[in-house]
Design brief:
Layout (H helix, E strand, L loop, with lengths): L1 E2 L6 H14 L8 H5 L8 E8 L2 E9 L7 E7 L8 H17 L6 E7 L3 H9 L3 E12 L13 E5 H4 L3 H13 L14 E5 L6 E9 L5 H4 L3 E9 L8 H15 L4 E8 L6 H8 L2 E13 L8
Parallel strand pairs: 4-5, 10-11
Antiparallel strand pairs: 1-2, 2-3, 3-4, 5-12, 6-11, 6-12, 7-8, 8-9, 9-10
Pfam family, one: Acetyltransf_1
Organism: Flaviflexus ciconiae
GO molecular function: acyltransferase activity, transferring groups other than amino-acyl groups
Amino acid sequence: MRIELTRERLPELISMVAAIEQHDRAPFRTLPSELEDYFDSSMEMESLGLVVDGVLAGYGVVRVPRDGGPLRCSGGTHPDFRGYGLGRQVIQFFDTSAKKLARGNPNAIMEIHVDEGRDSLIDLLQRAEFEPSGGYVQLRRDLAEPRSEVELPGFYQLHTWADVMDTEIGRTYREQLVELSDALESQFFVPEWSFIVVDAKSDRAKLAAYILSHKYQQDWSAFGWSEGYTEELVVLPDYRGLHLATVLLNAAADIYQESGMEYAGLDISVDMEGESPMLDLFTHFGYEPVRNTTLYTKPVYPGGEVS
């Protein structure tokens, strides 16, 4: 039976997603609060529940991102109900729901992230004419390894975000950061693990670079290690070439280690061949690849023809 997912089904959805991630050895764990976000009334979405013998056996969700990017698809089938065609129903739901949400936009795209080792899902997606379109590489840096020290240039200052966030100057920087990133608004953001570098050469110090850290503790059991996660590392254009990225990565690594973390982690975007100039850069900093996630995409209206 096909139903629309509602908040009343949230406990079943939480249980099913946990079973899926455990069975598929997913490199992450989804929090109940993240699934509850599916029912955020401010988010435009379509949802599907597949019920077999009164049990929620599969689900699909297509969401319209707030940034106006590709429609985001997610879903899965309970391990106990695989082999009955439920996965195909979820993929078909992506197609029909994306058309409804795209509202005739001939350039609309839908996307789904697939972790390595999900061969059955990849086969389903390829049969439905989804194609690989880049992805991400998860990297980690062993915090027990020595780090190359780099001094901060003169007239530049390094601040922990936790120390300045409630000050007048911190509120000014916050306005600038919020324009550049939504990482500060996340439930996983850790102010004590995040840093800014300011240019103090003039009376009005300017933001030069920043590193924002998150803590995804729910994922550590799947990883097999603990880590501080670098959500964003940005050096503003006027300040590149001053080794500020190295200063920030080292500062974050130091506080991660002081907090008992084993690794520093981050993800970088790669092209269809799995390449990125950032890969060599972070390898130089002592990071090593751990696993890959591939982004599969499909035009909502193949050929741009809206029917």
